[in-house]
Amino acid sequence: MQTLTLRCTLKPTPEQAAALEETVRLFAEGCNHALRVAKERGEFRRFKLHRLVYNDLRSMGLSANLAVQAIARVGRKKGSRAKFYQPTSATFDQRTLSLRGESVSLTTTAGRLIVPMKLGNYQRGVLKRARSVQGGVLTRGPKGKWYINLILRVETPEPPSGGGKVVGVDLGQKVLATLSSGVRFSGGPLRGKRLHYLRKRAEVRSKLDRPSERTKGVKRLWERLRGREARFVNHTLHALTRRILDGLEPGDTIAIEDLAHLRSRTTKRGREARHLHHLWPYARFRSLLEYKAALKGVRVVAVDPRHTSQECPRCGHTEQGNRRSQALFRCTACGFQHNADWVAAHNIARRAGSMGMGRCKPARILRVSSLHRFPLESPRL
Ligand SMILES: [Zn+2]
Fold first, then answer.
1. 313 Cα to the center of ligand 1, angstroms
2. 319 C-alpha vs ligand 1 centroid, how far in Å?
3. CB–CB of 217/126 below 8 Å?
4. What is the mean pLDDT of the chain?
């Protein structure tokens, strides 16, 4: 069993949307009240905070369950850092959220609502495997769209412990992904198309900015472009994650870079990674990979990505100068040289191996059906 989050778009009627609106507004008001009290009293422990504000929240009109969730949001270490809660989301638990076929049932401030969801094949597939729903987070997007992030318990095979191989994945721009097992997936189509859409959107945006050209047709074109790009990226990510998993067996491990760690860093790799963030939907990639891996009994480990492209796999010497160019790695200490992306993927795999996730045997070429695939000889170290 594994807990997964599944994001679904909601299709509320106008009356339902108004009720959702009122619910997130009240929820945020409750959170802000709890935060104020917590700060005044210097008390962020959940149970103490509960005693201080629960009755206030109930009299504001929040249901018992929503009040408990609002306190839970504030009563954490996280809460002490929050300054203010925006009225854009609310948390539901098992008693206030349940599934009814392709609709979700939510207990809001206006009572029980059955809101239809817009599901794709991927969502249907996950829901079919779900054993139970633990709750979910209702959010309103910037364009006024409503989403529900369902928290699901999904039946997954238990990965056998130890012994499996570890495959490192280096994410990039020109080459979408390089595996330490010697497989590369070209980034050409994804990068090219995203840049194409970026330019197209800039064009349309400049029209939107000028009131005289802001016609209905232009607005519709904008929406159409967004949709087309999203579908294309989605398709690519599904194909890529499937290909990465081809050839792996239960008990194997996939190692990826933990890019979430990088945001505050200013290393060269950090800047690169931030740029990567721009064209690389990393979070979506990671959640798809984790989901598909879990169903297969394959582990996913995220490792510290610092200097993965600068460390010599043969002698361990780490220096910026080891990376001769975008494509070439040559160690200034021992002279080892190879494809730079492969070196990064190898280091990522090795780091996961040293985390005690089984032995690391990266130098193995997998046979994978092709998604713009370039096999790469694994070198002798
Ligand atoms: Zn070396």
1. 7
2. 10
3. no
4. 81
